[in-house]
Fold:
Amino acid sequence: MLKYTADGRVVKGPQVGPVSSKYEEDVFPGNHSSVWGSWYDTKLQRWGYRCCHSTNRQSYCTGKAGRAAVAASEAARLGAAAS
Structure:
């Protein structure tokens, strides 16, 4: 049986430790600076990394340069499709 103080602390009984998760938190694989699922691509309707806007979970982070390269590639692809 547990007994508590008025502010909610355990006075008597087993002490409950911090809640632990089976998942690691704030893990940044592949040189990413944000966690998976921190960005959502509305065109593809897929989750990705905020730092490089990659929707491939196993990708290596290319940062701002990667975002610029994807934007240039999209612009070239759309420009070629419009012609």
Observations:
- Strands lie at 3-4, 10-12, 39-41, 46-48.
- The mean pLDDT is 85.
- Helices lie at 63-82.
